[in-house]
Design a protein that fits this description.
heterodimer; A: alpha/beta
């Protein structure tokens, strides 16, 4: 499996492709460096893959990074049992993210970094493309497959490696900023 | 009809100058004023005549573009990198390029329906004559062509009148297509306006096509009790020779049924269809059987059941001939638009063609004469059936298990699958003898075959699924109501008031293709949920088929459980893709028949009426094609929002409102001229939902309109809040935007909602007589 190849092979993005996050520390550093990040969670967070509790990871990432959450679908219902979240369809969230005057998920204004997770692959690639072309917002895909339209993305990963990456990211966020060049 | 051609036709004339035979002369047009209604401002609108209306919509529902890739590759100066704000060599930026691509898609869609309509009208004129009367419902349907009346400003009386309509549409499509050339249109706003124009034209063409075929072929005429038709993989009597028809343009399929009837063979041969030709054939002959939607092509052909395959146009797999050859079934192509590389045998003697097909000398033939298609298809089927004994192109169970052992576990199949289905795991199970996972995948499979194309080991993965699910497929027998065609005027009179006042909470149209994120079951589930909630449900095309393919505990399908009326709690199938025009037509007729708004060339006012008063929503859960794009854009211009499934994101642009921007949600009160805040109703014009649950919350929300009475708004809010709570477990955080007065609040939720309103510092507002058009203000405030 090539590290920086789109999961759906026909999805060739163009000149501007996502940087590959080889180490989760890089994602942690990007989050820490951001002024006002937001975590966008799709409905697939409640569709367990290999019995993994994604909600648990998502909540931990949000809490460790102090990141407000926008969640769609039933993911919202689950997340709000553990922490606050804004219910909003993904496409509406993306449409607001590109507006520098939007009040933001928490009312504190424009988000300069958006993290994406648990969104159907082809939906996420298009959403990321919209944000890439029509805003200055940086994006990180935390999903298991390489997303070429993000600013940074995990490569295609096995479930085991993905879980390890998410754990390492949480750990790095909890420990605070490390000296990682981005 | 307002225009007449002066036509002189002489079959034979002997004069001193010589003999004249088959002389025909046409001179211009003579205006005939038989319609008392005066012309509105925009009969036969040009590309820019409705631009001001379009800009009002685009201002409210701004495009959100999601490019597939970063480049433009439409001219030799490219590829051009349009990333972010870069401009290409022609000067175009990314927003304009994306809207240009959407316009191209909508032009393709509109051209496809128009070409279909043109072929049908010409064919029917040849068969029944120019003066053949249009009749879509007798005295029950006096507004026979609401879209044509609205757009063109004419009342078509005969088939020849439709030629004028199509002349106009063809001319306009050429104009639109030319705007996509390098160095033409440069603004995304104007591309968007042109997209709306393409959609409007598409609806005109669809209406022309369907009213022509309803009239000439005697399809159900606005009949809520149209017959129930057999549908499903298992409905064919395999002991009989079987002809499979695929496509959208029904004359060739009808020629087959006519030939069978004329020769006393109707009970000896099965005629079944896939996609919209099947819908339309079953409107002509209730004995015809429907196999299923577009995605059933590969599975049914490979089953080996068809002895002859007849294809016409649209939505036919480009590899249909290859698949037909695999099961040794001759294929007959019948449309100039889809010749498939076959030899044109139209001029040959039918007996010679039949012999060549049966002997396998040729894999198929192009026959462009409907009078011959029936004979050739039937005789070929009768002869072929006895020779080929239903030759399948799928392995047996043991074959699947053995082949599955060859899987290299490379994941290429899954990576090629549009729905990322877990195919490798299912194949691994199959290699150990377990076919359950493969069988379950077929229910989620859209039948595209990309898995097979991607497999480096050339494993016939789709066929594996078909084998694994064979038992279930054989039991697949359901009932769908035949396409009823138009909605009766009296039905409109009965529901007009409760719809406009909001007491019937909405009209929901489930339309479009079968590119579902999960199975078609989701469409059936949504339709039933909203029928139970007293919405009016209409369907068409592949969605109408998918809705039929599930049974309740009593073994009944949705069409057997709910009446086919256009009324609260009814579920009707209007018919094929071109029948979508009756859905838009129903909305127009509400404005015309119920509200008595003038129709003739009065597009802007009627669209304004629909946007502000008619709570209708289209749902294209599996929308895939360019036709679906143009159908949707026709609805948008009329002010009807459309929701598509997650694959609909790939249309690359949504039209989204921003509910929190109060300034976007003002209308004029036509009584006073005052600007009144009415909330985000409807919130979006084109919206892609991530999953079924999200759509089910969005549907009732998009049914809200500024004109709802307090009683109507309370009913709509009840549904919205109830579904929101059921799915998300909370009260919607935006309900304060939809409550204008305390009387809007659903009575059973009053305490909870009032408490929430207090937190939001909500203030009461008036309910206006809403319009976006200043010219409709009856009294201006100084």
């Amino acid at each position: 499996m090539c590290a920086a190849e789109p999961w759906q092979k026909a999805e060739i993005s163009g000149p501007m492709k996502s940087f590959v996050i080889q180490k989760p520390d890089v994602a942690a550093a990007l989050i820490k460096k951001a002024k006002h990040p937001v975590l966008i969670v799709g409905h697939e967070a409640v569709e367990a893959e290999n019995d993994i509790n994604f909600i648990d990871y998502i909540v931990k990432i949000a809490k460790a990074g102090k990141i407000p959450i926008i969640a769609s679908g039933k993911s919202f219902s689950e997340i709000r049992k553990f922490t606050s979240a804004l219910l909003m369809p993904i496409v509406e969230a993306a449409n607001r993210l590109i507006d520098p005057n939007w009040s933001g998920a928490d009312g504190l204004g424009h988000h300069d970094l958006a993290l994406f997770i648990a969104i159907p692959y082809y939906v996420e690639w298009l959403i990321l493309s919209g944000i890439k072309h029509f805003s200055s917002v940086k994006t990180i895909s935390l999903d298991r497959f390489y997303q070429p339209h993000a600013s940074w993305s995990f490569p295609n990963l096995t479930v085991k490696d993905w879980v390890k990456n998410l754990n390492d990211l949480i750990k790095a966020l909890e420990e605070g900023l490390k000296n990682v060049d981005v | 009809m307002s225009k007449k051609t002066l036509r002189l036709k002489i079959d034979e004339l002997k004069t001193s100058l010589g003999d004249i035979k088959n002389f025909e002369l046409s001179i211009g047009k003579i205006i005939e004023e038989a319609w008392e209604e005066e012309f509105g401002p925009t009969p036969f609108p040009s590309t820019s005549d409705l631009r001001s209306w379009d800009l009002k919509l685009i201002e409210k529902y701004k495009p959100f573009y999601m490019p597939f890739c970063d480049v433009c590759c439409l001219c030799t100066m490219g590829k051009c990198d349009l990333t972010k704000d870069k401009r290409g060599a022609c000067g175009l930026n990314m927003a304009a390029q994306q809207s240009r691509i959407v316009l191209l898609a909508c032009c393709i869609g509109a051209a496809t329906h128009t070409a279909h309509a043109r072929h049908l009208v010409e064919h029917l004129i040849e068969k029944y004559g120019r003066k053949f009367l249009i009749d879509v419902g007798g005295v029950s349907v006096e507004v026979e062509a609401p879209i044509i009346r609205l757009v063109c400003g004419i009342r078509p009386k005969t088939l020849e009148d439709l030629e004028d309509v199509l002349d106009y549409v063809e001319k306009e499509i050429v104009q639109l297509l030319s705007a996509t050339h390098t160095g033409q249109e440069g603004s995304f706003i104007d591309f968007e306006s042109k997209i709306f124009h393409a959609g409007m034209l598409d609806h005109v063409a669809m209406e022309a096509a369907d009213i022509a075929q309803i009239s000439a072929y005697g399809f159900p005429k606005a009949d809520p009790e149209a017959p129930l038709i057999e549908i499903g993989f298992g409905v064919v009597d395999k002991s009989k020779p079987t002809i499979l028809v695929i496509g959208h343009n029904v004359p060739s399929a009808i020629s087959i049924v006519d030939y069978l009837e004329d020769n006393g063979l109707r009970d000896k041969v099965e005629v079944c269809g896939i996609c919209c030709t099947a819908h339309d054939l079953s409107r002509y002959d209730s004995k015809a059987k429907i196999i299923g939607p577009i995605s059933w092509q590969l599975r049914f052909i490979r089953s080996g059941i068809p002895d002859v395959i007849v294809v016409d146009e649209q939505c036919i797999r480009a590899d249909a001939l290859i698949e037909a050859q695999k099961i040794k079934a001759p294929l007959i192509a019948t449309s100039e638009k889809n010749c498939l590389g076959l030899l044109d045998k139209t001029a040959d003697q039918p007996a010679e063609v039949i012999k060549d097909l049966v002997d396998g000398k040729i894999p198929g033939a192009l026959i462009l004469d409907n009078d011959k298609i029936g004979e050739i298809a039937v005789k070929t089927a009768l002869l072929t059936a006895s020779n080929r004994v239903k030759f399948k192109s799928i392995p047996d169970v043991q074959g699947v298990i053995e082949e599955a052992k060859k899987c290299r576990k490379c994941n290429e199949c899954s990576r090629a699958c549009p729905n990322n289905l877990p195919i490798p795991k299912a194949i691994e199970e199959a290699s150990k003898g377990g076919l359950k996972d493969l069988a379950e995948l077929l229910d989620l499979c859209i039948g595209c075959g990309r898995c097979e194309s991607a497999c480096p080991g050339n494993l016939p993965i789709h066929s594996f699924m078909v084998v694994a699910a064979e038992k279930k497929l054989k039991e697949e027998k359901f009932k769908v109501r035949a396409g009823r065609g138009a909605i009766q005027d009296i039905e409109i009179r009965q529901v007009g008031s409760p719809i406009v006042l909001g007491e019937i909470p909405g009209v929901i149209a489930f339309v479009g293709c079968a590119n579902y994120p999960k199975s078609g079951r989701e469409v059936a589930e949504m339709a039933e949920e909203f029928a139970k909630r007293n919405y009016i449900i209409v369907s068409s095309g592949c969605a109408a088929m998918s809705m039929a393919m599930y049974k309740n505990e009593e073994g009944k399908t949705i069409y057997e459980m709910y009446p086919g009326v256009f009324d609260a709690g009814g579920i009707s199938n209007v018919g094929s893709c071109v029948s979508n025009s009756h859905i838009a037509g129903a909305a127009i007729k509400i404005a015309s028949i119920f509200a008595r708004r003038k129709l003739r060339g009065n597009y802007e006012e009627i669209a304004d009426y629909i946007l502000n008063r008619v709570g209708a929503v289209g749902v294209g859960w599996g929308a895939m094609s360019q036709k679906a794009a143009s159908i949707a854009s026709g609805f948008w211009r009329l002010g009807i929002p459309v929701i598509v499934g997650p694959h609909g994101f790939k249309y690359r642009r949504m039209l989204l409102g921003r509910k929190e921007r109060k300034e976007d949600w003002y209308v004029y009160d036509a009584r006073s001229g005052e600007k009144v805040y009415v909330g985000p109703a409807p919130e979006h014009l084109f919206y892609s939902a991530e999953n079924k649950e999200e759509a089910m919350v969005m549907i009732p929300k998009l049914c809200m309109r500024p004109n709802d009475t307090t009683k109507g708004r309370a009913i709509k809010l009840t549904n919205y809040i109830d579904l929101h709570k059921k799915i998300y477990g909370t009260l919607p955080d935006d309900i304060y935007m939809f409550i204008r007065t305390v009387a809007d609040i659903p009575i059973t939720m009053k305490d909870e909602v009032l408490k929430f309103l207090k937190e939001k510092e909500w203030e009461e507002n008036i309910i206006p007589d809403p319009t976006l058009l200043p010219r409709l203000i009856r009294k201006r405030r100084e």
